[in-house]
What does this fold into?
Amino acid sequence: MSEARPKIPVYLDFNATTPVDPQVVEAMAPFWTDHFFNPSATYPEAMVVGVAVDQARKALAALLAGDSSSIVFTSGGTESNNWVFHGVWRSRPAHRRRFVVSAIEHPAVMETAAVLASLGAEIVTIPVDARGVIRMDALDAALDERTALVSVMLANNEVGTIQPVAEVARRAHAVGAWVHTDAAQAVGKIPIDVDQLGVDFMTVAGHKFYAPKGIGALYIRPRVSLPALFTGGGQQAGRRSGTEPVPLIVGLGKAAQLAHAWIKNGGPDHQTALRDALQLQLREACPDFTVFGTGANRLPNTVAMAHPAWPGSALLAACPTIRAGTGSACHHPDDTGSPTLRAMGVAPPLARGLVRLSFGRDTTAVDLAVAVAALTQAIR
Ligand SMILES: Cc1ncc(COP(=O)(O)O)c(C=O)c1O
It folds into this structure.
């Protein structure tokens, strides 16, 4: 994408999914054909494949600053979240029936918690403040010897707010609960150190950081045991049976390596500058736009905004030069609007207006100028 000529329509929905990086495609290529062998086989050709899987595991572990033996490849964020909830439910001591989630979790957490509720779990939902950050007083009230798991996402998918996960982990561990963070929107976008965060489980989704769809991982802290979700041939040290999808795993490893380099080279700072400039331009162009979560630590690539008179889907329909995301209201017109905004206390007319602009590593100031022009013209 060149500075001078944006590619129209400008794609600004990177939180929904990213393209696969060409270097990732290239790294995967030989593993569809020449290196097609089953990584569990013992002849030399297959051992090459096993080595590639190990290298991918190491690359992802390096991105999370964790140990590679803690990484289990899964099909993505949804599976990793399901695994943690069902696994903890099955392995918890009988008196720990309480699962604590934030009010702004992704449906892959919320719906799974609802399934556990139907099995007898007590689900406690922690509210967020007006910026979209969880209320620590409410967390404290939910923590005691009956708490089995606390699950708080690292970065919210709609507004991009980053949650105080390290502090959540410290408090939850003090009562002997396990801690999970759904980091699907954070991995590859901001620096992550699993030890600093102190979590027991972390969800990773490859297609949010230029790896293919259908591959992700669950980080499981050393010495923490989680019963297998899938049983069978005992692959991945018996933790997730099923022949490994080698090309996808190699792609995830390459994407992790690229993300690591991008973060080290100041990618997030560059995006933060773009984001802050975009917010200013939006406000200047149309003072009626509300940008959400501005008082909080947020993902550098995400701007969530709304106009009181426009449902998000209608506003974006009037902006043919951009492709961006809306809240759930666009899928359910009679809905009360974005669940995250509702949890933040935003009233339905504005909550229905959510437009999420989320950009990628190659997004330029010129691309964002196209978005500002499109949105303000549509309003006028
Ligand atoms: C926060 C969060 N968790 C989980 C998921 C689901 O991940 P996947 O699409 O890999 O199943 C997403 C995807 O939108 C997400 O944003």
